[in-house]
Every structure is written in C-alpha cells, then in structure tokens.
Amino acid sequence: MNGNFFGMPFGGIPPGGGRPAQTPSEVERLFQGLLDELPDEARTLIAKLNDQAAKFEAQTEAAKRQVHEHAEQQIAEIERKADSRRSVLFDQAIEQLQPLQKELFRTGDLASALAVFLHIRSLKLRAENIQPDPVDLTQFHHQVGKTLFFRITGRSDGPVWGSDIYTSDSLLAAAAVHAGAVEAGEEAVVRVSIVNMAGTQIVGTFSNGVASSDWGSYPIGYRVSRREPA
Question: Of 63, 141, 197, 228, which has the fewest CB atoms closer than 10 Å, so is most exposed?
C-alpha cells in the first residue's frame, strides 16, 4: 500500500518531500478571491479593525520611544554625575603626587620622579576618561545614553551604516570621518553618544570621502563628533 489518496500521499506531502506544489502567487490569488466574496458588512468591519490595529501599533511604538528616551536621559545624568565624581578623585590624587614628583626630582631620585610623572600622566588620562579605539561600539550596547571618549585615527575605508546616527557595528574610525569629526589619517579624540535606534530610518550617504550604506531595523547606534578642547 503506497498511501496514495486522491493522487497525494498521506499527510498532504507530494513525492520527494517538501510542501505541496502550490506557489505563493497561487495562494495569493486564492486568498484574494475569497476576500472578493466578502459581503460589504464584513469588509467594512475588517477595514475598521485593521485601521484600529494600525493606530494601536503606532501608539505603542510612540510610547516605547518615549520610555526609551526618558531612560536614556536618566542614564546620561547618572553617568554625568559619576564622571564628575571620578574626575574630582583623580584630580585630588594628582595634586598630591605633583609635589612628591618635584621633591624627588630636586633630590636627584630621577627614576622615582619619572615613575611618579608617568603615574600622574596615566591619572590625567583616566580623569579625562579617554579610551583607545574600540573598532566598533557593539560592546557598549548596555550603555545607552552614555557619552564616551575615544582616541582614534580616521579612516576612509571600512563598513559604515547610516548617517548622523550609525549602527553600533559601524567602524568608528570611518564613521567619524563620514560625520566630519576627524579627517582620514588624523589622530584625534572623538565624543561618542550611545543611542537607541528604535524607529530610526538607516539611510546611507556619501560624505567626506566615505560611503555609508542603508540598513533595516537595528537596535543600538551612536553619534560621533569631535571633542573640543576644554
């Protein structure tokens, strides 16, 4: 017994496996034909339902964006206060170490004076919170709303998606050139703000010698600008 019933094996699977031989266009035509048979009352009800559902989805997305924006503002404020406190701590340590460095230099202990000097320099960098080039910002997804500083060298090549706001997997050195924060080959400190990209249209452009690409929806992105001297 081969299990054939009306020319098709049991379970509706044609010989050779896979789905029944019915193309999407045939399904669409069948579905459209059934819709054409709807009475006007049902057609009006479904149209009203679809309209209400679309409005509900739009309201939901708007409410979600407001929550995200409020959360980002709160996170940014917390980070700002933390950065301020950290900067004060480092500045106090530097103020205490500088007289020691001068005294060691005066007494001829040059090795110790140099060691203290290098430590002071390290503390100044930590106070400024400048980090090395992270390549991209994917590791900072959990820091939405935070502002970060990176020392980078601009590049005119590398993958970049978006304009003004870039996807987190965009190459920072190239996105910074695209945004006009640095020039290709130039070393500089850039300011990066991690943002939620929900509802953001990701459109590529050609700017400052760098071509960026379009993309679909993406969760997290960033803005980049040049850090101006204090």
Answer: 228
Residue 59 lies in a domain: no
Domain count, the chain: 2
pLDDT along the chain (230 residues), means of 10: 40 39 65 74 87 90 80 74 84 93 94 94 81 95 89 96 96 98 95 91 96 95 83
CA distances 204 to 137, 160, 175, 198, Å, are 18, 8, 11, 17
- Report if residue 11 sits inside a domain: no
CA-based nearest residue to 129, from 112, 114, 143, 115? 143
110: Cβ contacts below 8 Å, ≥ 6 apart: 104
> pTM of the prediction?
0.55
Q: DSSP string of 158-196?
A: S--BEESEEETTS-HHHHHHHTTSS-BT-EEEEEEEEEE
d(CA 98, CA 116): 8
Range of the domain at 97: 78-128
Which residue in the block uniquely carries the two structure tokens 């920072």? 172
For residues 75 and 144, the answer to whether their CB atoms sit within 8 Å is yes
